[in-house]
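Lecture notes, unit on protein representations.

Consider one protein chain, 290 amino acids long.
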Amino acid sequence: VVLKLILSNVDREEVVDRIHKYLQEVGQETRAGLIPIDKFVINKGLNKSPEDYADAKSQPHVQVALRMKQRGVSVRAGDTVPYVICTAEGVADGTKTGFAERAYHPDDLKREGSTLTPEWYLGQQVHPPIGRLCAPIEGTDSARIADCLGLDSSRYHAASSSGLAASEEMYTLDSLITDEERFRDVDHFKARCRLCQQSGKFEGLIRGERDKAIPGLMCPNPTCNETLSVHSLRAQLLMVIRNHVKRYYEGWMVCDDTACGAKTRMMSVYGRRCLSAGCRGTMKYEVRLE
């Protein structure tokens, strides 16, 4: 709803007013329990067995998976665990551990006699993305959004005055960047033909080449011309996605200086500065969300 309002042709003042009213309704309906539970469900994958997590007490999906295994439900690496954050007696709200211990499977919500924690969802799941969407819009800020949601706006005043002008000078709007530039660092999906075993970049159902439109489901090998199976493409794409998710959760960082090539999973006390002798590069995640 907020994104549609931002992209509409309505005047800025009216857009801001509608966003504020909508957020007030969201806050009121969330606290009143008028929103279906399935809207609050968070899904997160396991990249290893639940018992193998050293920090299991701070991982909500791991806590839910362990409870499921105690009830005899099979849970293993690669599975996606759904959970909701609830209010539980005797569990602290302010710590990361307390947050994880308040995670329950949606089916267990009524069984445990718990209720959803509206303040957590409004503060952690609603406010951050709405704040980022509305950051460039004049007439609203992080504190005003928090106030509309019924949150403590004083916690967000510092973020509202933290040099937005400087960040605008450093970044270019995605709409002004070509697809080639925006996605220059991505790994392209390469489809493999089951007949000749040759792989080629998959560019969609139809790809343009000079003045011709070429079917994208044809084998990239000109001597083969076999039609690629949709089921095979689906299986290959699923394997690629799983591999990238696995690599993302491994958390490997690499130095952006090609002459260095340092690689580690440990964050330095000096931030993301590369610690290799004589290197002035910056450590960046090998696989990151964009």
